[in-house]
Amino acid sequence: MGKIRLYIDHRFDPGQPVPLDTDQSHYLSTVMRLAPGAEIAVFNGRQGEWTARLLQAGKRGGTVEPVAQSAPQLDPPDLWLVFAPIKKVRTDFIVEKGAELGAARILPVQTDHTNSERIRRDRLQAHAVEAAEQCGGTFVPAVEDLVPLSRLLDGWDMGRRILWADEALVGPAETLAGLLGGPWAILIGPEGGWSEAERRRLSAMPCVHRISLGPRILRADTAAVAALTLWQASLGDWR
C-alpha cells in the first residue's frame, strides 16, 4: 500500500494532536481500515511533510499526532494559471494538473466566449487538495472565484508577465529561451476562442508574450498542461 498523505490546515508541533475532519476520519478508519497507532504523512502547505500517528478516528472526526518533519516545504515558483472554465470534468482536470505541475495560484476567468457562467470554487479547491495529496506536493494552490477577464486585467500588475497561449499562432512550437524568470501567469482561452476585443486588449499589453503550442490546435485542458510544462521546463523549478 502506498503512503497515505493528508492535507490538514493546522499548525504542526511534535506531540500536539491536530484534528481530522469527518471525511478524513472516515477515510482512515473505514476506507483504509487503519487502527490507532498507524502512521501516515500529513502536510499543511507551510511546514513541509510530517510523519503523524493516528490517535483516534470515528464518525464524528478524529485526531492525529505529528511526530517529526519528514520532508522540507517545497513551494512552487510564482506562477499563476489563468483559464476560462470549460466542461465540468475538463475544468476539474485543469485544476488538478495545475496543482500537480506547480501553479501557485489558479484563477478561472469569464471571457467573451466562455461557456460556463459559474463554478463551484469549493469543489475545485478540493480537487487541488487531492492532487497535492496524491503527487507528493507540500503546497496547495488557492483556487479563486470566477471573475471577468476584463476585471482581472483592469487591476493587473504589469510586473507579472503573461504567457498567452494563442491558437492563432498554430505552427512550430516555441521555446522560452531568452525570457526572464520572476512572476508569470499562463493564460488559456475558452473553447470558443478569443473575441477580437480581447485580442486587441491582450496584444496592447506590454507584459504579454504570445506563444504557439505547436502545429495542432489543442483543447483548452491539453493547452494548459502543455503551457505549464513548457514554462516549468524553461523558467520554473524543473531546471
UniProtKB/TrEMBL annotation:
InterPro entries: Alpha/beta_knot_MTases (IPR029028), PUA-like_sf (IPR015947), RsmE (IPR006700), RsmE_MTase_dom (IPR046886), RsmE_PUA-like (IPR046887), tRNA_m1G_MTases_N (IPR029026)
Residue ranges of domain Ribosomal RNA small subunit methyltransferase E PUA-like in the record: 20-66
GO molecular function, one term: methyltransferase activity
EC number(s) reported in the record: 2.1.1.193
Gene Ontology biological-process annotations: methylation
Location(s), subcellular: Cytoplasm
Annotated coiled-coil segments of the chain: none
Similarity remark: Belongs to the RNA methyltransferase RsmE family.
Name assigned to this protein: Ribosomal RNA small subunit methyltransferase E
Phylogenetic lineage: Bacteria, Pseudomonadati, Pseudomonadota, Alphaproteobacteria, Rhodobacterales
